[in-house]
Each structure stands twice: as C-alpha cells, then as structure tokens.
Amino acid sequence: MNLLEKLYLRWKINKDEIFLITEGFKEAKRQNLEVNIGGEYISKSQVREGRIYLPPAKGGVDSRKLIALVADNFPEITKRYLNNKKKLII
Asked: Considering the entire predicted model, what is its pTM?
C-alpha cells in the first residue's frame, strides 16, 4: 500500500469514526445515558438510566462503547469503518 492509499484510508476512517461517535452521543442522549470521558461528565441527564464510561487511551479516549451504541443503526458504515481499520493495520 503506497502513501496516498494510506492517507486516503486514514481520511475515510476518520470520517466514519466522527460520524459514528456523533451519532453515538445522540443515541446516548436519547437513551438518557450519562457519558463520562476519562473522569469528566460530558452529558448529564436529569433522569439517568445508565452510564457510559470512555476510559483514557493512548492519545485520546476509547470510543468503542459509543460506536457500539449505533452499530446496529448504521451497519454498513460500521462494517466499512472496521474493515478499513484492519486494512490500515495490515
């Protein structure tokens, strides 16, 4: 894989990841879930029905739980995101 292909793949991964995380926050709000990012509450609700904790990871936070919230709602985007991440690693 040449440099341009890697850059394009990273761009696609970032685009899908931003979309899935944004939709994950929206879904968490719809479900009245509190979102805790590395010890700081980002989304609090009056009627708390649950909590999502996103632990710190190297260079950011682990957003897999937010993506898992919307994986069934956007299966083609989630599948493309995961496949592209595998391609970049290999």
From this structure: 0.85
